[in-house]
Design a protein that fits this description.
alpha/beta; D-Maltodextrin-Binding Protein, domain 2; 297 residues; rod-shaped
Amino acid sequence: MAMTLEQLRGFVAVAEELHFGRAAERLRMTQPPLSRQVQKLERAVGAQLLARDNRRVELTAAGAAFLPEARRLLALADSAPVTARRVSSGARGVVHLGFTAAAAYGPLGALLNTVGRELPEVHLDLHETVTSAQLDALRHGELDLGLARPPFDAEEFDARCLHREQMLVAVPTGHRLTALGRPVGARDLADEPVLMYSPTEARYFYDLVVSSVPVVHGNVVHTVGQVLTMLWLVAAGRGLAFVPASAARLGVPGVEHVPLATAEPEPVELHLLWRRGARNPALRRVLEVLEEGSAPR
């Protein structure tokens, strides 16, 4: 025999009042049906929960053990609809968020703070990965949201530009370019050794650099995929590197930064990216919060 919530509520009321009459009044019912509820519950449990006679009601040992569990079951039953409504509205849930390494020292921290403040019951599960891997994970439902670099397939993904920034030239401390007092142009870099992005591992930055600066192939000393690696190589005196402005926040010793002259003042873009038709309500709420302007530019 299955127990019911009404039986549990009746038992808890009697256990707390230790009086059927007061418990029935508390539950706004008469005493006979309350007595029948408790009896049915005892049959369902398979143990006597209350010892009662004409003068008093007491919890049995089984009843004392069962009481906190009954309260817990009732609390879960009461909270379950609230939880379901909050999940359905997107106020509670999990959003699996992919991000590039460069985003971690750019706008990622402010984004997490914004969502944490506005949606404290939404958990952002973080996955550091490159843009191409984010696209694949979004397609397969392994990620809900990405912080990624363009371009994207507009038929498959929705995207929104979250952040734009300058491109800088990272140079060893004391390098002659730091004394120019102006943005660095192609002529300033003509004879400099250059650290270049891998066209396969960092395609976005590779394309951005070659479209902004006529890099001479013979000047390329090393090809790497990560901005942080480039900065350490700059610090070692291996060459110059083109990095997003947020990379300066890393404060790598032995490295200074000067602006790069580009046609677009802030050519580096980072986009919010999600699969068209995504059904996670928490994702919808996260996007709404970020659209309201509380995330960084």
